[in-house]
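Re: the 275-residue chain
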Amino acid sequence: MSFNFNDLIEPDENKTLVVDALNLAFRWKHQGRTDFRHEYVATVQSLARSYKCDRIIITADKGSSEYRKQILPSYKQNRKDKFAQQSEAEEEAFKMFIQEYENTLELLEKQYTLLRVKGVEADDIAAYVVKHREKFDIGDIVLVSSDKDWDLLIQEGVMRFSYVTRKEVTIDNWSDHYNIPQEKYACYKCLIGDKGDNIPGISGIGPKRAEGLLEQYGSAYDIYDSLPIDSKYKHIQELNSNPEVILKNYELMDLLTHCEEAIGNGIPEIERRLQ
């Protein structure tokens, strides 16, 4: 299969495509594919054409987040436990998938900006790009990921496209996807936690109760400042007993606020590549 890295229509806007590299690669893993590198590149190019982007940035994990593991040693331990239970055939298939993924990154790096730092996750790198986009003369951004954590980055001029749902999340259609304002999304996640990343929330507080608390108090920080709250309800008593969970979860999940800490010494290399 032949392809051309420069096979993009002439863009008419200052717009950048930011790709969650491993997240997109899982599209082919779920199909049992280990020969997807050219199709992956073609997909990225197709998205750039569709959104008329004049720049493509690939963000990639390089190991788990050292920053988060220092805060929460059990961070993503559930995923490690799941991998440990793989059969030999499954383990071999995963190794083949990862090798093709690495080959894909090598192919992409020949033409596009690849941002990857040891011990740093793609989420934090994408957050850094969004947070400092004016510094690097980056206009509107189209995030490509099915990871809802990336909705923490949504703002005016920044949207997310999911290749799984084929839907867009923007600041304008936010209420179609969530019952809370975008500026409270980090607070919401701090209360309910993140099972996928093995980040515990407050016991007994799910989406509805989190929405109610945020509507009543304003933000998770406001809730923290109001503790202890006089209540007979068990989930409020849990909140009173574990106020540190709120602050810890902010450090773990508020991407825009803590991306510099998460990237650490890797910032100079990222900035060099963004120039």
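The chain is about 50% helix and 10% strand.
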